[in-house]
Amino acid sequence: MGGSNGDGDNGGGGRDDEGGDNGGGGGHIEGPGWLPPGPHSPNTENAPDPESVYDVLRTPARCKEALDSISRQELDTDWQVLRGLANACLAIEGRGGSWRQAAQDYSAVANRVNTCKSRAAHRVLAGLLDFHRLYPSSTVELADAPGGTQACEYVISSVDVGGDGEATPGDTIWIEVRGTYFDHSELLRDGSVHIGGVRLEGPPNHLSESGDQLVLAAVVPALGGKYGQAVDVRVHYNTTDAIKEAAFTVMDPGTPGGATGSASASP
């Protein structure tokens, strides 16, 4: 993609705001859209990860900083799409980068991006490559994306307690969260699970993960006699909560017929 300017050579064309060669149009060209808010990853580990480097890339002036950080990582799909985006960011602004690398990374991760931030980065990279294909000798100054729809919607998508929607203290339940916009290891170290307003001891218990999906196992606590009521489930990390209201009903363990042990088979 992108004609003859594969490695950041933008053909000598001026920026569109300097009256340069803008692909033959002669007037102002609207630049492609940039990254939406993540939201911002807390990055409590203070170490680069794809989720926090995405946040760095949201400020186009920091694309070189992001690319330097990415170059030190062992590339997986999330890192690779960010590398392509950082290269395209620098190339479209005439600050270096590589259109060839951006196109290669875009193609390499197609159908493999599986987190909300990497999907957003892939969409934005597609827009930059399309712009370069249409205006191969143009450079534009990318603008910080305004607020609006976020790339990730962090929610509890399901709480599995078995088919009857009831559990008793001591039962194990499974909580699935989606739209994680931070490194999972941070939540598993610093996060907490709350059932019926009671914080469970210790960090969340990790069962499985895939992309921006995380499944946690939790044991229903005693609720001080407040039984027979639907309870909320909350997964807390830093300043963020994912909440499932009225997720299930906690039954009195002494009720005849009340379940004991695990609420359901492991998913």
List keywords for this structure.
267 residues; alpha+beta; elongated; disordered N terminus; 5-stranded mixed beta sheet; disordered C terminus; 6 helices
Report on the architecture of this protein:
This protein is α+β, with helices and mostly antiparallel strands. The chain has helices at 50-57, 63-70, 77-92, 99-108, 116-134, 184-190, and strands at residues 155-160, 166-167, 172-178, 192-195, 198-199, 205-210, 213-219, 229-237, 240-250. The protein has a five-stranded mixed beta sheet with strand order 2-9-8-4-5, with helices on one face. A four-stranded antiparallel beta sheet has the order 1-3-7-6, with no helix packed on it.
Q: What are the SSEs and their pairings?
A:
Blueprint: H1 50-57, H2 63-70, H3 77-92, H4 99-108, H5 116-134, E1 155-160, E2 166-167, E3 172-178, H6 184-190, E4 192-195, E5 198-199, E6 205-210, E7 213-219, E8 229-237, E9 240-250
Parallel strand pairs: 2-9
Antiparallel strand pairs: 1-3, 3-7, 4-5, 4-8, 6-7, 8-9
Number of helices in the DSSP assignment: 6
Strand order, sheet with most strands: 2-9-8-4-5
Helix and strand string, N-terminal first? HHHHHEEEHEEEEEE
> How helix-rich are the residues, as a percent range?
25-40%
Report the major sheet. 5 strands, mixed
Q: Give the rounded overall mean pLDDT.
A: 87
**Termini, distance in Å?**
44 Å
Low-confidence runs: 1-6, 8-26, 259-267
Which of globular, elongated, flat, extended, rod-shaped describes the shape? elongated
**Rg for CA atoms:** 24 Å
Question: Helix/strand/pairing class, anyone?
Answer: alpha+beta
Number of strands: 9
Estimate the strand proportion.
Answer: 15-25%
